[in-house]
Amino acid sequence: MTHLIPNTYRIVNYADKVPHVPQKSFGFMHSGYEIWYNVKVMVDYKICLSEDKECSNKISIFDFKI
Question: Could you tell me which of 31, 27, 7, 19 has the C-alpha nearest to residue 56?
Answer without folding.
Answer: 19
